[in-house]
Specification:
The chain contains ten helices and 14 strands. The chain is α/β, with parallel strands linked by helices. The N terminus is likely disordered.
């Protein structure tokens, strides 16, 4: 079908999560739950000892998670995880696909603000963390938050992402900031060519590896983005690998996945935003927790210092005692409110509600 002029291929339906049962009894129960709660992802998350009553978690792109009790009859609502969003008009997450420059098919998602006008939209590119993970169709709080402020959101599952077979994941080995970044860049060019994204109003933001990809995008394709933001992101790949070897966290595997900080010194430096800060010429926002053991807070502090030295506008938010992901919701709210203001300012967007 077509959504606001965007062609949506039937084949991309498989981009929605589905479960395959070996047990016919469970398969039958799943069919009954799916019939009662259609167009959603429904999962059994708990059950009683004799497996006659189940708790079902149910969600979709426009339905935040809800919990139901199911005993073979009609599922009964227990509670909603986000009751304050009841009645809110949320934005559909549309599966898309495009070709990268070397011919690899890349899939991802395009969340279009529900009240958006026709034509190219201000867009935020939201690469996922991991990077050995993937974005999924369904409830995505960050995408919905940005869409509620009037931005379209693009989430590419670049090479190295999981869920598309081993060869696709392995195609990302040693490609931090290189082919993995090209997949993101080529997705942005595809959005512009399709008339979906306004080339004058594109920003990029991510968390963890996504934060790295945001900063690397600003350094490697400075003409593409008007602003960028990173939360808990890597800014220096060699420094990150030095920490990995010190902490002995799967150090040998990480060398295979990312590279050797000595043997691959030039390649990793070229793929490090902090080493190429001279290329960055648009405003940057950074956030980091002081107790982040995955990616040291020094990555954001060093990046901010280098940007300031170059006269690039930078906002740095340091969160005391926070690890790699927020534990305190007040800090999460603070960061995301600042983030929305940052992109509204630099991409010239008015909030839609």
């Amino acid at each position: 079908g077509k959504i606001k002029g965007i062609e949506v291929s039937r084949e991309l339906d498989f981009e929605r999560p589905e479960i395959v049962y070996i047990d016919e009894k469970l398969a039958s129960l799943q069919r009954r739950v799916d019939a009662a709660l259609p167009d959603r992802v429904n999962r059994f998350v708990d059950y009683n000892r004799d497996e006659t009553r189940f708790i079902v978690r149910s969600w979709s792109d426009i339905v935040p998670p809800e919990y139901y009790v199911f005993d073979g009859g009609r599922p009964g609502l227990l509670f909603k995880a986000y009751p304050d969003l009841a009645g809110a008009r949320l934005s559909p997450m549309i599966p898309v696909e495009y070709q990268s420059r070397d011919g690899l098919t890349i899939r991802g998602y395009w969340t279009r603000p529900v009240d958006a006008p026709d034509g190219p939209l201000p867009t935020i590119v939201l690469p996922h963390g991991g990077p050995w993970a993937r974005d999924l169709w369904g409830w995505d709080a960050e995408a919905q938050f940005l869409a509620s402020r009037g931005f379209a959101v693009f989430q590419p599952n670049f090479r190295g992402s999981t869920g598309y077979g081993h060869a696709f994941t392995e195609a990302g080995y040693g490609e931090w900031g290189l082919a993995m970044q090209d997949d993101i860049t080529d997705g942005v060019h595809w959005l512009i060519a399709e008339g979906m994204a306004d080339p004058e109003r594109i920003g990029i933001f991510g968390m963890s590896y996504g934060g790295y990809a945001a900063l690397q995008g600003l350094a490697s394709t400075p003409e593409l983005y008007k602003a960028g933001a990173s939360l808990s992101g890597v800014s220096d790949v060699r420094m990150f690998m030095a920490d990995v070897s010190k902490n002995l966290r799967h150090a040998d595997l990480m060398v295979q996945l990312v590279g050797d900080r000595r043997a691959d010194k030039d390649k990793l430096s070229a793929a490090s935003p902090a080493q190429n800060v001279d290329e960055i010429r648009v405003p940057v926002m950074l956030g980091h927790g002081t107790r982040d053991w995955n990616v040291s807070v020094e990555h954001s502090k060093n990046m901010a210092r280098a940007l300031k030295k170059n006269g690039v506008p930078v906002e740095l938010y340091i969160y005391e005692d926070e690890p790699h992901e927020f534990l305190d919701d007040r800090n999460r709210a603070h960061f995301f409110e600042r983030l929305a203001e940052f992109f509204e300012r630099h991409l010239a967007v008015r909030a839609t509600n």
